[in-house]
Amino acid sequence: MNRLKDKVVLVTGASSGIGWATAVELAKHGARLALAARRADKLSELSKLLKTETFLVPCDVTDFKQGRQAIKAVVKTFGRLDILINNAGLMATARYHEQDFHEVERVLRTNYLGAAVLIHEALPVMLKQKEGHIVNVASIAGLLGMPYMAAYAASKFALVGLTDSLRREYYRTGVTLTVVCPGSVDTPMAVENLNDEGLSRLARPKTAEQMAHKIAHCCVNRHPRLIYGDVPGAMIHFAHWAPRLTDWILHHTYGKAHPLGRSRGNP
């Protein structure tokens, strides 16, 4: 972990949850941190806790101009960018045909397109340095679509595909990419689901701190992909070999456990 000392790291979504915990974890190892999120007050609160050099970047990743300016500001301040951690995310659950399509667009802009713009701006910097690492925080839902999470799953599938494609495109350039696919994590974004009695029986949530520890290790070891959770890895393998049975299991399980399934009945 000493390899993180003095590395310039930009963490998006740093105002809470996994982003906050990741900043705390990286600070322990001497990384120089650029912290990005919409809530400047929370970034300032976090910065005061960290015993390392920090730079605050109030930024809404759905505004692509702000995203590009964030990368430019970090490079201007530190002179380089070693690691970009795309963690900013938005959860939305609904029956897809009833979901306001503006919400679908907002989920895609936050979870996928916002990250894609930051990567597009960061890549020339890292290629010029001949070194850099990009960590994209996706989800198990980016490998296995879940009921009532179509827009969220689509955004995370896109992020997984982007990461895998770019890792192969920039192979041996010095720029590497990791996609992190956690299962349930106890964060403010997931609190509504975790507080639901039915869904809480399905979840075995990890803490944000556990997730941050894994992300820090990915920053050091540059793993191509991390699937983290008690159940997710087994679920992915099972879905590959038995897709129809997986459909049936998830349909009926979520139909009974999810509040949207319970309220409408399982069609």
**DSSP summary, beta strand count:** 9
Straight-line N-to-C gap: 50 Å
Largest sheet: 7 strands, parallel
Secondary structure: helix percent: 40-55%
Largest sheet strand order: 3-2-1-4-5-6-9
Q: Count of helices?
A: 11
Summarize the structure in words.
It is a single chain. With 267 residues, the protein is of the alpha/beta class. It has a single domain, classed as NAD(P)-binding Rossmann-like Domain (Rossmann fold, 3-Layer(aba) Sandwich). It is built from eleven helices and nine strands. Helix 4 links the parallel strand 4 (83-86) and strand 5 (132-137). The radius of gyration is 18 Å and the shape is globular. The mean pLDDT is 90.
Helix and strand arrangement:
Elements: E1 8-12, H1 17-28, E2 32-37, H2 40-49, E3 54-58, H3 64-78, E4 83-86, H4 101-129, E5 132-137, H5 150-169, E6 175-182, E7 185-186, H6 191-195, H7 197-202, E8 206-207, H8 208-221, E9 225-228, H9 232-241, H10 243-257, H11 259-264
Parallel strand pairs: 1-2, 1-4, 2-3, 4-5, 5-6, 6-9, 7-8
Helix pairs in contact: 1-8, 3-4, 4-5, 9-10
Short summary of the structure?
The chain is of the alpha/beta class.
Which descriptors would you attach to this protein?
single chain; 267 residues; alpha/beta; two-stranded parallel ribbon; 11 helices; 9 strands; 16% strand
